[in-house]
Design a protein that fits this description.
alpha+beta, six-stranded mixed barrel, four-stranded mixed sheet, 13 strands, 21% helix
């Protein structure tokens, strides 16, 4: 379930002064929030987290080891400096094994649609869908092949194959990808220009 393992320590101090001290020592202050409202203040190695963050998505479940105890959690929020993107603080949200959870999963499309090669325009209205499943079955992302799409064809949420233990929460009618005629907008513009020209000519005759 967890591909990323982070080693953390319980944080005894609080406040901005303690946070600055940790950052100077190469640590990042963090908090693990539990489902029932409790929280645990920790600090993690800055280099380890920065390296691991490259493989962490919004639905990745990471394993946080704190003084011999293991927590499975999402990275709920990461605070960074505006100037250089340095990580200031991390919030984790603990997930419980065997308890269903809901999350929005990113949709990754791949392929060059047939309709685009025929002159159509690709539109991607939605970039994520909400699903419900056990933590161990939560997909990190959903991949959709859009290469077969021709002009005036679309792929809906209901067309996306999900894992056997993953239930769709989002509406199945939502369009994930569609290919439209590229000339529609141009034709409309040309038509409008024709009408304007005709109106101007009629005014001059008056």
């Amino acid at each position: 379930m967890a591909n990323v393992i982070l080693t953390a320590r319980k944080r005894m101090g609080n406040g901005s002064a303690d946070a600055r001290r940790l950052r100077r020592a190469g640590r990042i202050p963090a908090v693990i929030y539990g489902r029932s409202g409790q929280s645990l203040s920790i600090d993690i190695d800055a280099q380890q987290f920065s390296t691991s963050a490259k493989n962490i998505s919004a639905t990745s479940i990471v394993q946080v080891e704190v003084d011999g105890k293991s927590y499975d959690a999402f990275v709920k929020d990461t605070q960074r400096t505006i100037t250089d993107g340095c990580i200031l603080h991390v919030d984790f949200y603990e997930v419980e094994k065997g308890v269903l959870l809901r999350a929005k999963v990113h949709i990754h499309v791949h392929g060059n649609p047939v309709g685009v090669r025929e002159g159509g325009i690709l539109e991607l209205p939605f970039h994520e869908i909400e699903v419900e499943c056990l933590p161990k079955d939560m997909p990190e992302r959903i991949t959709v092949d859009i290469s077969p799409l021709r002009v005036n064809q679309s792929i809906h949420v209901r067309d996306i194959p999900l894992g056997e233990n993953v239930r769709l929460v989002s509406s199945g009618d939502q369009v994930v990808a569609l290919v439209k005629f590229a000339k529609e907008e141009g034709a409309s513009t040309a038509s409008d220009e024709t009408v304007e020209a005709a109106s101007a000519e009629a005014s001059e005759k008056k």
